[in-house]
Amino acid sequence: MHKPTKDDIYAYALSKTLTKVSSPATVGLYSSCENRTNMILKQMEVYMKRETSRIEQEHKMRPRPRSAQPSATGFLALIGRLLFYWPVWTEQNQQHHNIRFIYVHFSAWHFAGSDLLWAGIAIRLLNAMQMSFGKLQLILFRVSQHDEEQEVVKKKVEEGPNDWRSKKVCCCPLWFLLLSILIVPIIILVVMLTCGAPKPELDPDEEVNTTNSQVGVLEGLFIAALGVPAATALRFAFQMGKNLIFSQDLNLRRGMDNEKVSSQLGFMNEVRKEMWFLSRFIQFMEVFERRRIRVVLKITNLDRCSPKKIVAVLDAINILLSEEESPFISILAVNPDVLVQKVNFADGCFSKEERAYALLNCIVTLAFTVPPLGENSKRSLFYSLARSSKLLKDKNEKEDGRTTGGRDKKSSSDVSLVEIVLDTKESKPLIDKTSALDVKEEEVEKLVRSVLTSNERNLNQYMLDDAMSMRRVINSIRVTVIIMKALKKELPQPEYIAAWVILANGWPCRLSWILQCVEDVQQRAGIDGKKVAKTDDSKTLWEVFTESSAELYVMSPQIEDLLEQDGDPEMFERLLKIDFKFTVKDLKRFEEATVNLDLSIRRELAQIRGTSRLKDSGWMRDLAPLPITTIIKMKEEDICEELTRLKFHDKYNAIVKSNNLNGSALVFGDADDLKGLLQMSFGEWATFRLHFLPHLPSKLRPQYRRTPSTLSQPQNQLSRLHAAQHYSSNPSLDKNYM
User: Given a cut of 80, is residue 390 above it in pLDDT?
Assistant: First the structure.
């Protein structure tokens, strides 16, 4: 049995979580490596199919669900339900235990040429439903079941065992009426032909006329009996043919191509109606198949599109796919760094709610950031890629050797065939390894229940009063528990798991800063050849944050959009200082399972911090900026020693001592006042500023602020005006940076 990789474990945890997540839901699958996200998506599909099979095998309640691939009798039964019955929404059929997933892949890059990228989602879903259920079934449902007026009617859930109610005409079931219209004339005809009508004694001529009149009566009886059904059948056949010829996806494509139509509100309303139609059809099929049906929409390559189209797709996910009864689960597989920068640069992004992080938080109900590869995983991936490249090269050489001159180019089909073979060889072990992962459902449910019901430390006070945020926390707790169980990690107390998830959800910037500070200390110790003391693991995270909070404050103008995501700073302090005294050891235990924390925040913090602490060899070795944390802790004597090492004149030491210039004065003092006080030459001041004032902007080291240059001047003025009003009305926001 092969040992599963961490990516297998992440795919497994996501698959088990999605079987429990209520729809509609949006999963943010974040990773900077597209190959990893694609592999995780493929593995998720394998695990989800296995999970649904396991659920159906273990669920013994009757009646059993119908097969997803119906037989001939099942097809006829479905046609009968579509034509003659209405579904009844009951408490039982709204809470089916079994589940079925339909996977739809939407590559935004394929529709990037259209101005209405969001409408491409509706077209892709329509095509996928036709392939999954059949085009005839969809058209029958549209003609015989669908009623647009029912959209404004609230869905009624009734009590009782009956899942179906027959359609009636004048209190008579439609199927019985139709059967009567067809059978009763036949019975009368058989009786009349068999027994014959009583005949009085007539002349031969009169007998012939009577026979003709009887035939005429029978013809009239048949015409009268079949007239109404024939007209109804003709109308039904006309509607079926119309929908077959002029399919709805074709109408949507025409609307996307016609600028006059697509710019109107009516086209957007048509797309919305189609999404509601698909939701109703899936609800009908849930009652028929006796299981939940969820459509998993895998959205990829969105970060390759323009900012305007990205925002349009995110709005479509939030509006079209997020209705209360929507059966859709959207998986947004993107590179968060690219997505955030593009959305922030989109036109009209002025307020906090319109920026990338706030927009994603309003949409995403489960944020899953793929953790970076460890050393062993990197080594395995490197060897795998090198081996694949060698196999591909050998294959090319063999193919070239078979050609006449050895120089003939291979056709594109040959190259793609080789790539497919390699993908199959690489993916086959992954499918074989699925049996190595088996986290007991009962254990997970017990742990999750104990986590969510634990009120010993009053976790509710740290949660936002926002339903979307609460759903995100609940789903993240489930994923975290499954990952830690699969990794065979020692599980802490349940409330500590919930507290850690809430910490990452409520204060992502501050937690990312702590993680980066701990990592930098370990890396610095390895570079300097020192061994990190074991006692460092006992240091609390609040102590780590306190020691570096001054540096974070200095960086705050550059990371305003990151700090805006964090909640109340006092509650953050209380969580780490009083209620949950997490240590560095706890951080290392949770780090591999912390998938609800966006790594792009940490990467940005690391880049800014690394720029301010840049140390290089050669001419920059002695002139490199000092870390801000080092400068703040310096006393007058330390500054004098550093000036002497840099070969400054002794007179500057006297100025430092006479004016009590310590580290805090250098960091928080005014640069112009300091320059006038020291009276240095231009060259000396440039060296002093580079070494002691790394927090100040310079031409060598520009401010790392994301201000979109693409915005026009009036937009910049409006943005500044909004910011000025925002901060003037919230004077307490300044302390949020500490």
Answer: no
Query: How big is the CA angle at 127 (ends 121 and 15), to the nearest 5 degrees?
Result: 70
The whole domain housing 680 covers 618-687
Measured in degrees and rounded to the nearest 5, phi and psi for residue 367 equal -90, 125
pLDDT for residue 717? 33
Residue 345 lies in a domain: no
Helix (H) or strand (E) holding 295: strand 292-300
**Domain end call among 687, 704, 722:** 687
Following DSSP, what letter does each residue of 160-223 receive, concatenated? SS--EEE-EETTEEHHHHHHHHHHHHHHHHHHHHHH--------HHHHHHHHHHHHHHHHHHHH
204 preceded by cis ω (within 30°)?
no
Domain boundary among the residues 648, 667, 687 is at: 687
Residues 393 and 487 in one domain: no
Structure tokens that stand for 544 in this block: 């780590």
pLDDT digits (tens, 9 = 90+) for 632-672: 888 888 889 888 888 888 888 888 888 888 888 888 888 88
Query: What's the number of domains the chain is made of?
Result: 3
Could you tell me if residue 638 is inside a domain? yes
Burial 389-408 (b: 16+ CB within 10 A, else e): eeeeeebeeeeeeeeeeeee
Q: Report CA-CA distances (Å) from 148 to 143, 151, 222.
A: 11, 6, 36
Using the 8-state DSSP alphabet, how is residue 23 labeled? S
Whether 449 and 597 map to the same domain: the answer is yes
Question: What's the whole-number average pLDDT of the chain?
Answer: 74
Burial 274-301 (b: 16+ CB within 10 A, else e): bbbbbbbbbbbbbbbbbbbbbbbbbbbb
Predicted TM-score (pTM) of the model is 0.71
Is 525 found in the same domain as 415? no
Question: Looking at this protein, which amino acid is placed at residue 433?
Answer: K
Q: Is residue 602 part of a domain?
A: yes
- 113 token code pair: 């040429």
Residue 152 tokens, joined: 């404004």
CB 335 within 8 A of CB 370: no
- Per-residue pLDDT, averaged over 366-371, amounts to 89
Q: Which residues contact 464 (CB under 8 A, 6 or more apart)?
A: 470, 506, 567
Q: What Å distances lie between residue 494 and 281, 449, 491, CA to CA?
A: 41, 9, 8
Alpha carbon distance 166, 87 (integer Å): 9
| Residue 252 contacts residue 277 (beta carbons within 8 Å) | no
507 pLDDT above the threshold of 90? yes
User: Closest Cα to residue 514, out of 544, 474, 537?
Assistant: 544
Note the pLDDT tens digit of each residue in 150-160: 777 777 888 77
Beta bridge partners, 27, equal 331, 366
The predicted-structure confidence for 183-219, as pLDDT tens digits, reads as follows 766 776 676 667 755 555 545 555 545 555 555 555 5
Does residue 286 form part of some domain? no
The kind and range of the H/E element at 106 are strand 99-107
Answer yes or no: are the C-beta atoms of 554 and 580 closer than 8 Å.
no
Tokens 């320059």, located at residue = 675
Co-location of 574 and 669 in the same domain: no
Token readout for 228 is 């109404």
| Cβ(339)–Cβ(356) below 8 Å | yes
